[in-house]
Design brief:
This protein is α/β, with parallel strands linked by helices. It has 2 domains: 257 residues, Ribonuclease Z/Hydroxyacylglutathione hydrolase-like (Metallo-beta-lactamase, Chain A); 40 residues, no CATH class. The chain has 11 helices and 18 strands. It has a 7-stranded mixed sheet with strand order 6-5-4-3-2-1-18. Strand 7 and strand 8 form a beta hairpin. Helix 10 runs parallel beside helix 11. The radius of gyration is 22 Å and the shape is globular. The model has no long low-confidence stretch (mean pLDDT 95). It binds zinc ion.
Length: 304
Amino acid sequence: MGFSVTFLGTGAATPSLERGLSATITNIDQTLCLFDCGEGTQLQLKKFQIKSSNIQHIFISHLHGDHFFGLVGLLFTFHINHRKNPLHIYGPPPLKEILRIQMEMSVKELSYSTIFHSLNSDHFMEVCEDEKFTVTAFPLQHRLPTYGFLLKEKVRPRKVSHQFIENYHPPYTDIIRIKSGEDYVMPNGQIIPNQEITFLEPQLSFAYCLDTAFYPPLAEMVKNVDLLYHEATFMHDNVELAAEKGHSTTIQAATIAKMASAKRLMLGHISSRYRDLPSFINEARNIFPETDLAEDGMTITLRK
Ligand SMILES: [Zn+2]
């Protein structure tokens, strides 16, 4: 089963030719989740050849325009394209009414159903359970109610060891039995326990954390995450401005990644004022070496 993350928009506040507004897509075995939907997201989906009809869940972090003003347009396009699959939308409670008013004025009845899930918890709470993954929402620290999200794979079926197959060349029917948990019975009657010839793959995880000021409790909520996407609107010389605006700096994002023992950090929501990106990234790498800067269209593959 594949697991990848594609950054569609990595800029802050207003779009530029280099960076679109906040939107990130995850693909777990062709089930797509969209995190935020800034203005222009539809075009980014097309540009980066994402099959948007496979989006099943849309998560909106907060109601600043650069994170959701593209949503109504995307919903309208789904209707024009005769979408039939239900769509789950998760966001702060006022979003439901905002969407209702916008859609009612242009469409009598959508071609598909939408299921709205209000986020109003002040603690870590599972909000979505799909066949292969769960998504948990948790509060961040910003200028209005804002949620971060942790997407985590469910426990996957045990895999049969390649070494065992090479050594014993079991028939396909036996491999199916082993996958379902049975021991292997050799032609001479000897039994090899299932635990010795199968293994569990790790449950991969991705955390989406923007927008937020430096918020140390976040580290505990995303502990050991495989890929942390954390905002870094500013470099650290603007640490006071960042606090005032409810945003983070490079060093603060890297500090959260380090505290969380994340495996990898991607920085996003970059202010368009920064041109010297090597300096930007190095500031974070001094604290957390496994840091990279997200770019529009960049895909990180956690599992092929
Ligand atoms: Zn914001």
